[in-house]
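#dry-run=false #mode=assembly
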Amino acid sequence: MSNGKDIYKAKCQNCHGENGEGLGQLAPPLTDSVFLKTNKNRLACFIKNGANESLMIHGKEYKEKMPAFPELADIDVAQVMVYITNSFGNKQGFVPYSQVSKHLQNCK
Amino acid sequence: MNKITAYLASSLLAVSIFTACKQERKLPFYGERHAETVRDAAGVEKIDTVYQTIPDWSFLNQDSVVTTSKATDGKVYIADFFFTSCTTICPTMHRNLATVFSEFKLNPDVMFVSHTIDFKYDKPSVLKKYAQKLGVDGSKWLFLYGSKDSVYTLAEKNYLVAVGEDSTAKDGYIHQGYLVLIDKDRHIRGAYDGTKEEQVEQLKKDIPVLLAEYNK
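#status=ok
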């Protein structure tokens, strides 16, 4: 978890906030457990490649582009994903590295 | 009885020292300064210090309306340089600046002026959308668009904030994240790192100190 937290601080916190609260309508909060669960197979791709589509989070639409972080290795993506999905009120548990790696190979 | 008088006297003294200190805190002047010979109202010549002054400017605001430095007349304001597609320091700067904004939203003597340094993409309509998504509406917080030359010169020569294009930077531009506090005479009275919460807290404390100068 501690590695994941460091990566979060360095790469994600600017926009998503220290407590995953997001930033206005510019960056969505990371506290929508339902969204995180429904999209758990896509989270790794979002983290590494960014997002360029409209996302509904907590019933609000977010349309801003999320930047890609190609510098993150698969293991970094896995760690930050575990951190996010088990912080800010989320409790999704552990995600095996192999699974994240697989998701990343199948990004659209 | 004497004891009581002495106690009262000493507490009065303590109070007066305390208030004296409070009134004495004055914000410094930043930037270059020079001495100039001026004539006072009575026509007597004297030497005065002239501080660095933000020059007149004219830009388009987020409503595509030509806006000049007159907009800040009679106000203290906080200026910064950013761009909407910045993913590094800008979101943190504006997250923090938005907390200052909400604290002074109702104070008619305080304004906010954000200059974009992305002269290619950040047209007024883009700035408007950004402002709305940040949760800001109205003309108390101006988001200004101008030519590269005019904005970059203003940043580096006048507000003393470094900005630049940099093709090696992640988002194509580099800049410092200072929030610059400007007084009613357009002098620089403070610069706070907008990415550091404790410096932004200091800004919130310094704005009333600056405003108090005008209440004498």
